[in-house]
Amino acid sequence: MDVGYQRMLINGEWVESLGGQSIPVENPGRKGTIVGEVPRGKTEDVERAVLSAFRAFETWKKVSPRDRGRSMISIGEAIEVRAEEIAKIIALETGNAIRTQSRPEAMLAADIFRYFGGVASEIKGEIVPLGENLLSYSRREPIGVVGGIIPWNSPVGLAALKIAMAITAGNTLVLKPSSEAPLAVLAMARICSEFLPPGALNVVTGTGSECGIPLAKNPLVRKLSFTGSREIGKTIMEAGAERIMPVTLELGGKSPQIVFPDADEQQAVEGVFLAMRFTRQGQSCTAGSRLFLHESIYDSFLEKLVKKLKSIKIGAPLDESTDMGAIINETQFEKVCSFVKEGLRQKGAILLTGGLPPSEGPLAQGYFMEPTIIGNVSNEWRIAREEIFGPVLVAIPWKEEEEAIRMANESHYGLAAFVWTHDIGKALRTAHQIESGWVQVNQGVGIVPGQSYGGFKQSGFGREYSLEGMLESFTQRKSITVNLQF
Ligand code: NAD
To answer: Structure pTM?
Structure first.
């Protein structure tokens, strides 16, 4: 399947870049195969898109929240009807398996639009009792043109989130998807454009330096909502600081999973497997990639987990029987391999399963890696500190509860965490002490719309995904005070 050349969306029209150049999108499941092409947007294209969003804001902000919400619900319904088409494109361009990842992601996008459409009428203010002769009330007003920048690992889910939150709140948006995975986002934008006025949503395609930087620095942009790596997050924050502009940063993670000895081992193995997002090749910001196992269950737990990993099927993303697909591109593939090599060079490290990928056979045709566990790891090593963003789990034994919590918190990240125990006291004590924006107890699932989501520490700041997140990140509060005795 080749989706061909797909134009970008500016002012309700599907356009090429002014420079006329394009960027090929590779199929990670088959090295060297091109899935489609998109325009190579640059500063002048970003300027056109921002100007169109700036003009559209004047009318869109005046549409009642209820009517804006109605458009979102229609978009959600239309996405659901065309979810299969979107899912196939996601699988092709990201390498994510259609059954375990891409189809659920397309359905999640529909759900996100429906959720924000449903809560649109809750964009409301309060009356403040300042005195008998004063009427003081607040309004939640949109901010203006939002610059949304997203990564490749969950392109449609994250695009749906930025579009639904920003536009439901009355802002207009210029969205820049990753040049690694822009095609499914454009397919979804095509559906959105059927229900939105020209300019409310613009999608510019291009690289980070040629298209992302001009968007972050454009003086008509009033808010930046960025999801991506910690390194680029810093440059986005600098761009925000330059113009005193609000910024939301959803960055990376190195999330801990703490397993207590009383947890049901087989159930916890299944949960740890899910939480590590092995079926997305570990390419998830919330992947529970540091496994802290109590020493009394360390061996038996890992034995069961290894058995589980050996049973999953790695292969072509579009094959319905595939559990786990391919890593996004060569650079990321090489990066993950170098982390594995470095980890295995450490004294005492033990490779429990997986390891370096095969150099021949069917899996060598794409950027495929086996799910990997490295045991006996020290929390100090780089493989336990840095986000690998690949299917590599490190296992670390512990003796005392405080020691497990201390190690879990010894990280510059703080996005997610997972606690496995049947003891409710231990579970909540641990959950309260962990420095992360989201702690799950006895489950390792993905985010559900309605739940505020975001990081502690260098995993970012600001919350998204919920009504509260939308109000906090995409509106500004205005107070109005009226003297009734005038
Ligand atoms: P990245 O930071 O390299 O790129 C993210 C986006 O920023 C892309 O669209 C890219 O083109 C753009 N970009 C790159 N340089 C830029 C610049 N100088 N100025 C403006 N834009 C620029 O991240 P990635 O490799 O695409 O994605 C992986 C990262 O995303 C991981 O760190 C992962 O943890 C993180 N992530 C976080 C969340 C979350 O919700 N917290 C969700 C998904 C992914």
So the answer is: 0.98
